[in-house]
Design a protein that fits this description.
Layout lengths: L6 E6 L19 E2 L2 E2 H11 L4 E6 L4 H7 L3 H10 L2 H12 L2 E6 L6 H6 L2 H4 L4 E4 L3 E3 L6 H11 L2 E7 L9 E7 L6 E8 L10 E9 L2 H7 L11 H10 L6 E5 L4 E3 L3 H14 L4 H14 L1
Parallel strand pairs: 1-4, 1-6, 4-5, 8-12
Antiparallel strand pairs: 2-3, 6-11, 7-13, 8-11, 9-10, 10-12
Helix pairs in contact: 3-4
Length: 295
């Protein structure tokens, strides 16, 4: 299956409680990272991987997300009249990235439940899942490698990243073994947010997945796990241990990743991305050095 036929799912129904009160009325996915909302980076990543059909799973008070990806003719006309072609291009870009659809999750019952809500839209084809809290730098493509690995093996593919063992309790952790003929690894087991002493490795699952449609059948009967939620990790654990299936494969990411789900890391992401930009970096970097010297 070519990447042009693959759809993407972006779960965006979370309450964003760590960013209250900013997220009382604004979806956390719409918090700006420099001058674009976080979710636009994720949509751009999917589009760059050749995916042009994207389903966003939303909850209550999330209309701002669908509004952002709609065209705004009155704004475009005003920018055109002003001759502000730069801003006009950026406004139009967000409306032209992909064919974006929306479905409500209703009650937030976990990531597994959110993915299950995509079943009707996705159908019987493999699909990608991108979490909005993890921004992957466009200079370090990940999704294309994951899609290629899925096409090669037929397995569910998850993104892994080495983390400090002291922080593994914040992630799903993977037990792995080498995969012959590939830089990827075979996943033999998964544990959701284990204590450090119980973790099978320091390889953490980060928010990118390429999944076969068979995951839906597993999610249908997956019982609520940690936090009383339907965990995608639990469904992947079943696929990983099936003796008659292609299993689960991990692609280890060693590039630049920005965690926008934590307040401090969110600030770091803004600083890092702004510092690297040609239009902002030359002014920002000297100021950052001066500021650091005053600390």
């Amino acid at each position: 299956m070519g990447t042009q036929k693959m759809k993407a799912v972006i779960p965006a129904a979370g309450l964003g409680t760590r960013f209250l009160p900013a997220t009382k009325a604004m979806p956390k996915e719409m918090l700006p990272v420099v001058d674009k909302p976080a979710i636009q980076y994720v949509v751009e990543e999917a589009a760059s991987a050749g995916i042009d059909d994207i389903l966003v799973i939303i909850g209550r008070n999330k209309n701002a997300i669908s509004n952002h990806f709609d065209s705004v003719p009155e704004l475009e006309v005003k920018l055109m009249e002003k001759g502000d072609t730069g801003r006009l291009a950026r406004v139009v870009q967000s409306s032209d990235l992909a064919d974006i659809h929306f479905v409500r999750q209703g009650e937030p019952k976990g990531l597994g439940h959110a993915v299950l809500r995509a079943r009707t839209h996705v159908g019987d084809s493999s699909f990608a899942v991108l979490l909005g809290d993890d921004l992957i730098d466009e200079r370090d493509p990940l999704l294309t490698a994951m899609i290629a690995e899925h096409e090669r093996t037929g397995a569910a593919v998850i993104a892994l990243m080495e983390v400090d063992p002291a922080n593994i309790h914040m992630y799903g952790a993977a037990a792995v073994e080498p995969l012959e003929g590939s830089d990827a690894v075979r996943v033999t087991g998964l544990v959701e947010k284990p204590a450090q002493e119980d973790a099978p490795s320091n390889l953490a699952i980060i928010g990118r997945y390429v999944l076969p449609a068979s995951i839906f059948e597993v999610l249908e009967r997956t019982e609520p796990g940690k936090g009383g939620e339907i965990q995608l990790t639990d469904a992947l654990q079943e696929l990983a241990t099936r003796p008659d299936g292609p299993g689960v494969v991990g692609v280890t990411f060693r590039g630049r990743r920005y965690d926008t789900g934590d307040r401090v890391d969110y600030i770091k992401a803004i600083v890092q991305l702004a510092s690297d930009r040609e239009d902002l970096g030359p002014e920002l970097r000297p100021w950052l050095k001066e500021f650091a010297e005053r600390l």
